[in-house]
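Encode chain A's predicted structure.
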Amino acid sequence: MARRTAALAVVALGVMGMGAVVRSRWPDSASALDCPPELVRLRVDGVATCGEGELPTGARALALGRRLDLNVASAEELALLPGVGASLARSLVEAREVAGGFGSWEAVDEVPGVGAARLKTLQSATVLGAAPDTGAVW
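Encoded structure for chain A:
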């Protein structure tokens, strides 16, 4: 009995030691780039950088913490937002095309399927027009 208890204690200590090693080598949650999201650009090879490059759009912009332009984004890009499925994304694009673009959040709120909660999500993840970025999405 004592032998089995000792063996279990050694195994438990080994597992805890491995956990400490893994934790110490775990990737840091800090950003790898030294610039705010609105200054991030993509090089030709697709690597994000703070220097020269192409302005990220769509899914790449969302992945980098940028906001989408609601007056330019495609239905596929809008469908990537939480709470906005393919159907609502299509409705937003159709309403935008009919109106010639969204001029206010009230116009967005009038689209069927956009309620108070979805409007808040859209306001936090998108901009109306090419307004300057004011920070990370989430």
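The chain has a mean pLDDT of 83.
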